[in-house]
Design goal:
With about 260 residues, this protein is an alpha+beta fold. It contains seven helices and 14 strands. A hairpin with a 2-residue loop joins strand 8 and strand 9. The mean pLDDT is about 95. Pfam families: Inositol_P.
């Protein structure tokens, strides 16, 4: 199947990121209004306002496209092109004023991550990527790095508490072998992996809007992104994801995590 041209869509995705960045910078000057969702996670009025603005612009420009977002019901997710949105990935850091939060914007093609934007408003960092083609940080090409052994790997994990007990046991096997595990980086952790600063990311409790944009960027940077059984991401994913820059280390981790 011939891949569609990505240039128009990427340019549009960056206009969406410009919009979300302006809104988040303005909102960061004030103490946020906080709500607790049914899953006990945080949401703010800014999360909802940003996603509403992005949805409005998408539907005005591409009315036949679908949308899958964090804060509002999905629209036409069986469409060939579906925009996958997380207005604030890292709402808890946003509330706390810790600048690792960002906006995730992805365009899925036939259900798979295709192009993605990871935008960090406070630090003015933006990663963009087209799966299996290219990735950039602030316009400069980036590439994942090789890793000689799991014992030398720098791994990131958003929060191991999101994992079920059996999955946590499997993760702990890898954690004990790895050189170091860095927690709590939100989408920034995936972005720096695309730039070759870390070796692996292991997470549970994720939704498509948490990982589709990072997946497109990491795949574009020459890396790998799958679930714990080694299968590609889909809208029906179970929430357990693994990303790596080195195929040998990916396979080594899958041999442990696949039993969870």
């Amino acid at each position: 199947m011939t891949r569609p041209d990505d240039s128009e869509f990427m340019a549009f995705a960056e206009t969406l990121a410009d919009l979300s960045r302006a809104m988040l910078i303005a909102a960061a000057r004030h103490k946020p209004d906080i709500e607790i969702k049914a899953d006990a996670s945080f949401v703010t009025t800014t999360d909802k306002a940003v996603e509403s603005a992005l949805r409005e612009r998408i539907l005005a420009t591409y009315p036949d496209h679908g949308i899958l977002g964090e804060e509002f019901p999905s629209v036409n997710t069986v469409a060939e092109f579906v925009w996958v949105l997380d207005p604030i990935d890292g709402t808890a850091p946003f509330i706390a004023g810790i600048p690792v939060y960002g906006t995730l914007i992805s365009l899925a093609w036939n259900g798979a991550p295709w192009l993605g934007v990871i935008d960090h408003p406070v630090t003015s960092d933006r990663w963009t990527g087209v799966a299996h083609e290219s990735a950039h940080h602030n316009g400069v090409p980036v590439r994942v790095r090789d890793c000689a052994a799991l014992e030398r790997a720098l791994i990131t994990c958003s929060n191991a508490d999101f994992m079920a007990s059996e999955a946590r046991t499997q993760f702990d096997i890898i954690r004990r072998r790895a050189q170091y595990v860095q927690y709590g980086g939100s989408c920034f952790a995936y972005a720096v992996m695309a730039s070759g600063r870390t070796d692996m990311a292991i997470d549970g409790g994720m939704d498509p809007f948490d990982v589709y944009a990072p997946a497109a960027v990491i795949l574009g940077a020459g890396g790998y992104f799958c679930d714990w059984q080694g299968q590609p991401l889909s809208f029906a994913m179970d929430g357990y994801v693994l990303a790596a820059g080195d195929k040998a280390r990916l396979d080594e981790a899958l041999a442990v995590l696949g039993g969870a």
